[in-house]
Amino acid sequence: MPSLSIHRANTIPPYGRLNSDFFNAVKDLQMPPHWLIGSKTKTQQRLDHFNRWFQETLGLINEALWPKYDQRRQEWQGKSTQHMQQLTDLDLRVMLDIQTPKNGAKRFDQDIESPLRSLDVKTHSNMFSLEDQGGGSHMFDGLPFYNKLLDDKTAKAVANLCWQADHTKKGNVSFLFKNALQRPRPMQMALRSKQFEFTYRDAGTAGTPSMSSGHCLQGVLCVGAVVERFLDDGTVLTGDAGDAIGRWAVDIGDRRVLAGVHYPTDSLCSWIIFLRMADHVFHQRQVKALMADAIKNHSFVHATLRRWAKTAAGQTYRAPLELLDKSMPV
């Protein structure tokens, strides 16, 4: 396996050890409670399955996207060590392009888009502040701004369902990948490379390694649980209602990139993780397809990655995007 010592000149340093709260959350590899839920598989077999899934998924990410960090050896490991600097440089270049558009206002300052958008119009910047407020405790309060037809009771039920799924379907997954990948945050690398024009918003929920994006994973996974409940109740979210909830799901992650606290490929990593785990935590297979459709058709970050990948400067995005495509439902 290719490796790269962090002691070599100009090598990207790891983010560092997680604080005690996060370290306690990831020190034991535990599966989400809903992993293979409903199957006749015994608990130990489910755990073994999850462990294999985690190692296989981590291996694919290490090959195509970002290496894992071996703390004992103090080295990066994986095929992606060969292009981790190029990927970081490209990500920062793309983020600067997003922050300083040639025409029009920054995406971050624009109003959210939805066919059922509330009359209380919010910008992505407004929504980022809401989702970061109180340590992220209001992350799932945003659907009413995307769907004005939602009553207060249903909005509260949606938020509760999302938080339940955060425990039962996501569990420690995002922290497990963060701990293994140890990618430093964009603002750290921008400062290290003296890109002083790079800007970012302070975020109380940005105290962990950058990859994967927890908000991005929570958006598609936890909102996916809401979609599953609707399907269970015999309601298929199509038309404007489906459009609204899909946009909300992907915008949660997109906003972290717009705010400068995550790289675009942090979101790409989270989508790959989601698509590879969806079949193991949802009993409604349509959830994966509906969220994949939202990523492809409504995510600004996804569209930006695709656009850059078509250029000579953005060729480093091609391999991870191929991995994303292979993870998409057939």
Question: Can you walk me through this structure?
Answer:
The protein is mainly alpha-helical and 330 residues long. It has one domain. It contains 14 helices and 3 strands. The chain has helices at 20-26, 43-64, 84-99, 124-136, 143-146, 152-170, 173-181, 186-192, 214-232, 239-258, 264-281, 286-298, 300-309, 318-327; strands at 3-5, 68-70, 75-77. The protein has a 3-stranded antiparallel beta sheet with strand order 1-3-2. β2 (68-70) and β3 (75-77) form a beta hairpin. The longest helix has 22 residues, at 43-64. It is globular, with a radius of gyration of 19 Å. The two termini are 31 Å apart. The mean pLDDT is 94.
Keywords:
330 residues, mainly alpha, three-stranded antiparallel sheet
Would you identify the regions where 5 or more consecutive residues have pLDDT less than 50? none
Number of domains: 1
Shape: globular
Count of strand segments: 3
Q: How is the quaternary structure best described?
A: single chain
Q: Counting H and I runs of at least 4 residues, what is the number of helices?
A: 14
Structural class: mainly alpha
The helix-strand sequence is EHHEEHHHHHHHHHHHH
Strand order of the largest sheet: 1-3-2
Percent range for helical residues?
55-70%
